[in-house]
Amino acid sequence: MIARVSRSLRPLSTTRAALSTWAKTPAGPPDPILGVTEAFKRDTDSRKINLGVGAYRDGDGRPYVLPSVRAAEERIVGEKLDKEYLPITGLPSFVKNAARLAYGADSKPLVEGRIAAAQSISGTGALRVAGEFIARLYPHNKTIYLPTPSWGNHTPIFRNAGLEVKQYSYYDKNTVGLDFEGMVRDIQAAPEKSIILFHACAHNPTGVDPTQEQWRKLSEVVKEKEHQVLFDMAYQGFASGDTDRDAFAVRHFVAEGHGIVLCQSFAKNMGLYGERTGLVSFVTADPDERARVESQLKLTIRPIYSNPPLHGARIADTILGDAQLNAQWLSEVKGMADRINGMRSTLRSRLADLGSKQSWEHITNQIGMFAYLGISPEQVSSLVNEHHVYLTRDGRISVAGITEHNVQHLAESIYKVVG
Ligand code: LMR
User: Fold this and answer.
1) pLDDT tens for residues 390-416?
2) Of these four, 59, 237, 363, 415, which has the most CB atoms within 10 Å of its CB?
3) For residue 115, what are the β-bridge partners?
4) How far is the centre of ligand 1, averaged over its atoms, from the C-alpha of 276 (Å)?
5) Which residues are catalytic?
6) CATH number, domain at 190?
């Protein structure tokens, strides 16, 4: 009786904690990239700068909705369209237009109906679907090789999809550039028919890309070893400001006869971050194979998220399908790339003005959204904790987050920490 009374007097929260199914669930670490934004939001210092996540900001540091996107949205709203489910593989005209943007309008497999494709939940969703598809159906060696370093989410995406993940050399700390010899050596040394992931342009996190000549050589090496290539193209337009130029590697490999897998994102180049708009596609041998691959794409997608979201695909489709809006969008992409490059030069010259003895040449040599500073995790901690400059632990900064208003504080902070 006494025992029963004392049990009922125990505070409810204690009882609940003791009985909860999840009582022993360990706390996970924050996400290496998105966790930086969470920490940034908690900081109350007025000088704080968020250079963690790769999201474009305008000259005043504000999120930027492209005017072409606003115009497309107005059209879509005006049409009073329904909200029905999309097919499992997405909005057909978007799929066609997005594939054309990547492969080029005169691409042979595109013209011949040999590209199996499905709209995806942005680049991450494309990679996950590709990973699941490969894990289930690729008949050879199920190991995927990633560059060292690679985007932090690549490894969990492919491991969770059921693939084994290994690395090839990519970045050379000493030159703060590409270790091309090491890259070729490792790709040659991988067992035949391995899966090789390449960043198509604007490598994340290093901002270091192979030259066109080096891509040609890589295509030969891959062909000799009969490897399967998976291109992650999340930044088409962000490397050079020109979407055709940035598609060079993809188009060269396709022209050389590689049956590539391609993952596209419209998060960066259209600023459709939260709309989750992308494409996963496979270059196949003939229309019959395309149809079979597409049927398996449907079987891969349906149990994960059934079918993709509508609004972002409509926006991208409206822009890509209208000559005038498309031209406007291309100039806006160039505008974003130009502002980023301007900020690279400004940051480098401010560091020089402060008397930094380091060569910050790599900041202007690297391309795309990121600069890889080549600094230690301890130096990153000092930037975050003492100077309120938020960046990822590997020393990557999103140059898209730098503005005329914060570049001086950034340069001074880097100078104080690195010298
Ligand atoms: C990044 O690398 O910052 C972006 O691709 C955003 C993300 O999801 O990690």
Assistant:
1) 999 999 999 999 999 999 999 999 999
2) 237
3) 283
4) 13
5) 151, 232, 268
6) 3.40.640.10
